[in-house]
Amino acid sequence: MPQITVDYSHPVEDAFDVDGFTRVLHETVVDIAAAKPEACKTLIRYDCLSAYGYDDRADEGHALVHVTIGLLPGRTEETKARLTEATVELLRKHIAPQDGVTVHASAEVRELDASYRKLEW
Question: Name one GO molecular function term (predicted).
Answer without folding.
Answer: 5-carboxymethyl-2-hydroxymuconate delta-isomerase activity
